[in-house]
Design a protein that fits this description.
The complex is a heterodimer.
Chain A (H helix, E strand, L loop, with lengths): L6 H16 L31 E4 L2 E4 L8 H8 L33 H17 L2 E6 L7 H11 L7 E6 L2 E6 L2 H10 L14 E5 L3 H4 L4 H13 L1 E2 L4 E3 L7 H5 L9 H14 L5 E3 L14 H4 L5 E3 L21 E3 L12 H11 L5 E2 L2 E2 L16 H7 L2 H20 L9 E10 L13 H4 L11 H7 L1 E2 L1 H10 L3 E3 L5 E7 L4 E11 L8 E12 L5 E12 L2 H6 L18 H14 L3 H10 L4 H13 L13
Parallel strand pairs in A: 8-9, 9-10, 10-11, 11-12, 14-20
Antiparallel strand pairs in A: 1-2, 3-5, 3-6, 4-5, 7-8, 12-13, 14-15, 16-18, 17-18, 18-19, 19-20
Helix pairs in contact in A: 7-9, 13-18, 18-19
Chain B lengths: L2 H27 L8 E9 L2 E4 L1 H10 L3 E13 L1 H4 L4 E12 L2 E15 L4 E12 L2
Classes of the chains: A alpha+beta, B alpha+beta.
Function (chain B): Has a role in nuclear-cytoplasmic transport of proteins and mRNAs.
Keywords (chain B): Cytoplasm, mRNA transport, Nucleus, Protein transport, Transport
Protein name (chain B): NTF2-related export protein
C-alpha cells in the first residue's frame, strides 16, 4: 500500500480509473448512500457531515481518513495486508431501529471535480475531528459499569468520557473520540484485572460516529422538548410524567419523534432533566415500549434524587434490565405490565427478585412491602453467570482443588512413584515444549527436550509413539525422571472446562522452580491439562495428562512465589524448614500416618524420602507400627 | 502398548494435525465458517469465560476481531473409553502466538475432538475448547 498518499489523490485516481473504463455518466455503477436521492447529474457531492466515505482497497474497506492521521499504532496495522477493519460490526443490525442511518455507505461520485475536491477538504477537517473508536470488552456484561469505567480510567492518564456505553449479548461497548485516548485505552488492557484475578481483555477498533452523537437533537428540537417536558412536570410533587411520550400531541405537532428506546432520544431527555429538573423525585416512563434500559445507564448521574420510578406497561423481557438502573436508591417502583413479571413462579419470588436489586424499596406496583431484612448475601440470580459454570458446582471445584493440592505436594516433595494411585490403569501422558533444537543450548528447558512430543517439530512416528506414555506405570516412571520441581501452588489459575458424570476436564496454569540439576533456580511456566474420571469415595483418576512447559516471562518470575507458602501444621514443628515441612505433609498423605510419626520416620532416615518410604512399608508389613500412629479415617 | 493401540494413536495424531491446520486457517480467513467445526452442545472457555451452544459461539466469534494465528506447539492424546463412553475422542493441546487486530498475544488452547462417523468418512468435531492467553 502506498503510505503517503492522501485520501484526495487516491480518490482521484480511482475516479480516473472509472472514467476511463466507463466514459459514461458517472452515476452508473456507483452505489448511493442509503436513504438519499441518487446524485445523478448534479454537481454536488453527496458527502454530508453524516457520511464517512470509504475507499475500496483490494483488502476490504478502509476508512480513508486513517491514512492521514491516527497515530503510529494505526500505521502498523494498516501495513499488514491481512488485517481487515470491520467498522460496520454486525451488531449494527441487531438493535431495532437504532442504527438505521449508516449501514451501507459507499462512494458517490459527482461530475464536477472541483467542487468534489473542495468538499473533500472540508470533510477532511470534519473527519479529523471526529475520528471515533469503539472499545469492546468481551464478557463485559458481568461487570458493573461504574466499576469497570473507574478501573479503566484509573489506568489511563488522560481523562475521557465514554459515549454510548451499552451491552450487546455478553460484551460491553463504548466509544471515545480521540485516537490518542483510544491508544491509551489499548495500553490499559494488559493491566486490569477483575476480582477473580483474571485479565480483562479490551479490543479497540476504529468506528463510525456513534449513534447518539450522529443523531443528536438540534438546539431547536431541544428547546421544544424542554418546553413540553416542563408542561409535564409537577413542581409540587417534583414528578415528571413521560408516559406515552411519543404520542404527546405537542411533540407530534413539531414532528419530534420521541421513541425512548433510541439512544439519542433518551440522552436528550436525561440532559433536559439534568439541567432543568435536578431535584426530580419521581419519573414516569410507562407505556413507552421500552425493551431495554441501556439508555438509562447514567440516570444515576443525571437524576440522582429519583426515588420513584414507573416503568409499567413497557416491554422489558428480563429483570436484568433493572441492573442498569441499580444505582438509584428507589423507594417506589412500578413494573407491572412488563413481560418479565409473569416469569416468576409466584408473587413472593417476584418481590424478592426485585428487592435483591433495590434493597431499600418500600412499595412495588402500588403495594407496601414488609420492611426489608438485610442479609449479608450477594444477590444470587443477578451475578455473573460465568462464575457458576466455569467452576462447576462447588463440590467439583473443591474436589479438583484438593486433588491438585495433594498431587503437587507429592510431585514436589514426595516420591513421584506415589502418584501411581492418582492415575487410571490406561492413562496417557505426554509433555511438550515449544523449542527448536537449535535454540536448545541457550535455554533452561534443555532437560525437558528429550521428552518433548511437540508434533509441530517432531515428525518421526516412532518417536511420537514412544514419547506418549501409556499405562500408569510408564507414566509414573517417566515423571520420576523429570527434574525435581517446586510449584507455586498459591498462584495457580485453574480452568474447569468440562464436567460430565464420567469425565472432568480442567487445566492448570502456573509457574514452578527447578530445584536441582543444571537449570537450578530457573523458573518455568506451565499449562497442564488433565482429563480425569471420578472413582469411588470422591477421588479422581487421571485418564489424560498433558504438560506444556515454557520459559516464564519476567513479569511471571517476579510475581511468582510472592505469597509465602502457607505453613502447614505449624505448632508441633517450629524448627523445621519449609521443605522438610512439605515432605512431612507428603509422607503423611502417602502413608496415612499422623504428621508427628511421619516426621519421626523421615528424621530417622536422614530426610531421605525414598528410604523412609521403604522402611515404612517394611515395618508396616511386619506389623510393627502401632495403630495410634495412623490418622483417623474420616 | 498393544499394536492396535499404536496404530490407533498414529491415525488419531494425523487427524489431529490436519484438524489444527484447518481450524486455525478457518479462524483466520473464514471466521464465519468456524462454527461448523463445533458440535451442537460444545462449550468454549475463553480466558475463563464460558460460552455454550452454537448460537452463543456464533455471536462470540463474530465479536472477535480478525486474527492471525501461529501455532508453535501441538500435542495430542487419545482419551480413554471409560471417560467418554465409546466415542472416539482425542485431546488436542496447542500453543503459539495470535495477533488480534495487530495486538500480539501468546496463547494456550486445548480441544476435545470427537469423531463423527458418516457414510464414507470420519469427521472430527470439537466438543469442548479452552483458550487462554498466557499473559
Amino acid at each position: 500500500m502506498k503510505g503517503q498518499e492522501t485520501a484526495r489523490t487516491k480518490m482521484c485516481s480511482m475516479v480516473k480509473k472509472f472514467q476511463k473504463s466507463r466514459n459514461e455518466d458517472c452515476r452508473d455503477g456507483i452505489s448511493v448512500l442509503q436513504g438519499r436521492k441518487p446524485g445523478g447529474s448534479s454537481s454536488r457531492c453527496n458527502f454530508g457531515r453524516r457520511s464517512v466515505p470509504y475507499e475500496r482497497s483490494g483488502r476490504g474497506l478502509l476508512p480513508s481518513h486513517f491514512q492521514e492521521d491516527g497515530g503510529n499504532w494505526m500505521r502498523d496495522v494498516r501495513e499488514d495486508p491481512r488485517v481487515r477493519y470491520t467498522p460496520y460490526a454486525r451488531e449494527l443490525n441487531e438493535r431495532r431501529g437504532k442504527w438505521r442511518g449508516s449501514r451501507q455507505v459507499l462512494i458517490t461520485m459527482c461530475r464536477d471535480p472541483q467542487s468534489r475536491e473542495r468538499k473533500m477538504e472540508e470533510d477532511t477537517q470534519d473527519r479529523r475531528v471526529e475520528s471515533w473508536f469503539k472499545i469492546t470488552i468481551p464478557f463485559g456484561r458481568k461487570y458493573d459499569k461504574a466499576w469497570l469505567m473507574n478501573l479503566i480510567q484509573s489506568h489511563c492518564s488522560v481523562f475521557f468520557s465514554p459515549v454510548d456505553f451499552h451491552y450487546i449479548n455478553n460484551r460491553a461497548l463504548f466509544f471515545v473520540q480521540d485516537a490518542r485516548i483510544a491508544s491509551k485505552i489499548k495500553h490499559v488492557r494488559n493491566k486490569i484485572y477483575d476480582e477473580e484475578k483474571r485479565k480483562i481483555s479490551i479490543f479497540v477498533t476504529p468506528s463510525v460516529v456513534p449513534y447518539s452523537v450522529k443523531n443528536k437533537f438540534t438546539p431547536e428540537q431541544m428547546e421544544q422538548l424542554k418546553f413540553i417536558m416542563k408542561k409535564r412536570y409537577d413542581g409540587s410533587q417534583q414528578a415528571l410524567n413521560l408516559r406515552k411520550l411519543r404520542f404527546d400531541p405537542d411533540l407530534m405537532g413539531h414532528q419530534i419523534e420521541m421513541i425512548l428506546n433510541r439512544g439519542n432520544c433518551m440522552v436528550a431527555t436525561l440532559q433536559i432533566i439534568e439541567s432543568n429538573f435536578p431535584e426530580l423525585l419521581s419519573l414516569n416512563l410507562g407505556n413507552n415500549r421500552l425493551y431495554q434500559l441501556d439508555g438509562l445507564a447514567n440516570i444515576v448521574e443525571k437524576a440522582p434524587q429519583v426515588k420513584i420510578l414507573n416503568l409499567s406497561k413497557n416491554e422489558l423481557k428480563s429483570i436484568c434490565e433493572l441492573d442498569k438502573v441499580k444505582g438509584l436508591k428507589l423507594e417506589e417502583l412500578w413494573l407491572q405490565g412488563n413481560p418479565f413479571c409473569s416469569k416468576f413462579p409466584d408473587q413472593s419470588a417476584y418481590v424478592s427478585a426485585i428487592r435483591n436489586c433495590f434493597p431499600k424499596l418500600l412499595r412495588l406496583d402500588g403495594q407496601e412491602l414488609s420492611p426489608p431484612i438485610f442479609i449479608n448475601v450477594d444477590a444470587p440470580g443477578l451475578i455473573t453467570p460465568s462464575q457458576e459454570s466455569y467452576k462447576g458446582s462447588e463440590t467439583m471445584k473443591n474436589l479438583v482443588l484438593q486433588f491438585l493440592k495433594e498431587y503437587y505436594l507429592i510431585y514436589d516433595y514426595g516420591d513421584r512413584q506415589g502418584l501411581l494411585n492418582a492415575y487410571h490403569n490406561e492413562a496417557c501422558f505426554s509433555l511438550a515444549i515449544p523449542l527448536n533444537p537449535e535454540d536448545l543450548d541457550s535455554s533452561n528447558l534443555r532437560e525437558y527436550f528429550k521428552y518433548s512430543r511437540n508434533m509441530k517439530k517432531l515428525k518421526d512416528p516412532n518417536l511420537r509413539r514412544q514419547l506418549l506414555k501409556y499405562t500408569k506405570r510408564d507414566i509414573v516412571d517417566s515423571l520420576s525422571m523429570l527434574p525435581k520441581t517446586q510449584h507455586d501452588c498459591n498462584n495457580f489459575v485453574v480452568d474447569m472446562w468440562l464436567q460430565r458424570k464420567t469425565m472432568l476436564c480442567f487445566s492448570v496454569n502456573g509457574v514452578f522452580k527447578e530445584i536441582q540439576g543444571t537449570s537450578q533456580g530457573g523458573v518455568h511456566a506451565f499449562t497442564r491439562t488433565f482429563i480425569a474420571t471420578p472413582g469411588s469415595s470422591s477421588c479422581l483418576y487421571i485418564v489424560n495428562d498433558q504438560l506444556f512447559v515454557r520459559d516464564a516471562r519476567p513479569d511471571e518470575i517476579q510475581s511468582a512465589f510472592s505469597v509465602p507458602m502457607a505453613t502447614p501444621c505449624s505448632s508441633s514443628m517450629p524448627t523445621l524448614s519449609q521443605e522438610h515441612q512439605r515432605m512431612v505433609q507428603a509422607f503423611s498423605l502417602q502413608s496415612g500416618m499422623k504428621p508427628e510419626w511421619s516426621q519421626k520416620c523421615l528424621e530417622d532416615n536422614g530426610w531421605n524420602y525414598t528410604r523412609a518410604g521403604q522402611i515404612f512399608t517394611m515395618l508396616q508389613t511386619q506389623d510393627k507400627i502401632p495403630a495410634e500412629a495412623f490418622k483417623q479415617m474420616p | 502398548m498393544s499394536v492396535d493401540f499404536k496404530t490407533h494413536v498414529d491415525q488419531e495424531c494425523k487427524a489431529a494435525e490436519e484438524f489444527v491446520n484447518i481450524y486455525y486457517e478457518t479462524m483466520d480467513k473464514r471466521k464465519r465458517a468456524l462454527i461448523r467445526l463445533y458440535l451442537d452442545e460444545a462449550t468454549l472457555v475463553w480466558n475463563g469465560n464460558v460460552v455454550t451452544g452454537l448460537e452463543a459461539l456464533s455471536n462470540f466469534f463474530e465479536m472477535l476481531p480478525s486474527s492471525e494465528f501461529q501455532v508453535n506447539m501441538l500435542d495430542c492424546q487419545p482419551v480413554h473409553e471409560q471417560a467418554i463412553q465409546s466415542q472416539t475422542t482425542v485431546l488436542l493441546v496447542t500453543s503459539g502466538t495470535v495477533k488480534f487486530d495487530g495486538n500480539k498475544h501468546d496463547f494456550n488452547q486445548n480441544f476435545r475432538l470427537t469423531a463423527q462417523a458418516t457414510f464414507n468418512s470420519t469427521v472430527w468435531k470439537i466438543t469442548s475448547d479452552c483458550f487462554h492467553f498466557q499473559d
